[in-house]
Amino acid sequence: MNITTIGFDADDTLWHNERFFVLTQDRFAELLRDYSDRGTLDDRLLEAETRNIGHYGYGIKGFMLSMIETAIEVTDSRVPASVIQQILEIGQEMLRHPIELLPHARAAVEAMAASDHRVVLITKGDLLDQERKLAESDLRQFFDGVEIVSEKTAAVYERIFQDRGDGAQRAVMVGNSMKSDVLPAIAAGSWGIHVPFDLAWALEHADPPVGNARYRTINDLGELQGLIGEIG
Predict the structure, then answer these.
(1) Strands 5-8 and 145-149, sheet pairing
(2) Alpha helices, H only, 75-223
(3) Are 187 and 154 in contact (CB under 8 A)?
(4) Is 163 in contact with 43 (CB distance < 8 Å)?
(5) SS3 37
(6) In DSSP terms, which residues pair with 5 in a beta bridge?
(7) For the purposes of burial, counting CB atoms within 10 Å of the CB of 138, is it exposed (0-12), middle (13-18) or buried (19 or more)?
(8) pLDDT-derived band of residue 1, with 50, 70 and 90 as boundaries?
(9) Per-residue pLDDT at 199 exceeds 70
(10) Long-range contacts of 123-128 (CB under 8 A, 24+ apart)
(11) pTM for the whole thing?
């Protein structure tokens, strides 16, 4: 067997995530409608998120702090305490939101686990929140290992696939983010399988590596088992 290790991304690959951020951003815009137009507010929030990744990392808690920072900026420090309180409340709602698996997610993970492949969850974000989502997903039993990392780089994938398998050359990474799941995995020497999702965070956009022999794309996880059979 050529492929011995299958890596799965979590958010928006196995379960819904980005849509909750979009809905929260809509509520945030409504809270601040008297202080900023929607376009300007969205731009300022994205700027804050970009600045703060190095401080807070990825996930809901960093998003909450970026919303508060943006609210202070666009109101020239006049944002009412009641608005700050509501921002915290909607962020806490996100942290409590039940997990909703995407179509074919459970079947795909279960099928890979039932084969002779090692199956690893590789996700980035807040440790506690990612652990909560994994526990609620009822998928933990199918993974041989779980890696929650602060960033997904070629070096990170190389290390994980070496520790958890037979090296990157014999591994596949499956995910919805071209920037985080596909490109760095291919750079590490593994295969990168893109599973497009209809919503994508602006900071996760990247051009596909068209023509790369180790790049594949599928419509959904229902096509994964067949593709793995073809390439591995």
Answers:
(1) unpaired
(2) 81-96, 105-114, 127-137, 154-164, 183-188
(3) yes
(4) no
(5) coil
(6) 118, 171
(7) exposed
(8) low
(9) no
(10) 123/9, 123/10, 123/11, 123/147, 123/148, 123/149, 124/57, 124/58, 124/148, 124/149, 124/150, 124/151, 124/152, 124/180, 125/11, 125/57, 125/58, 125/59, 126/57, 126/58, 126/59, 126/60, 126/61, 126/62
(11) 0.90
* Contacts by residues 39-44 (CB-CB < 8 Å, ≥ 24 positions apart): 40/74, 41/70, 41/74, 44/70, 44/73, 44/74
Please answer whether residues 13 and 224 qualify as being in contact, where contact means their C-beta atoms are separated by less than 8 angstroms: no
| Phi, psi torsion values for 174, nearest 5 degrees | -115, 125
Give CA–CA dist 33/6, Å, rounded.
45
Radius of gyration of the chain (CA): 19
Which is it for strands 215-217 and 145-149: parallel, antiparallel or unpaired? unpaired
Tokens of 2: 């050529």
Residues 33-73: pLDDT tens digits?
A: 999 999 999 999 999 999 998 888 888 899 999 999 999 99
Instruction: Give the 3-state secondary structure of residue 183.
Output: helix
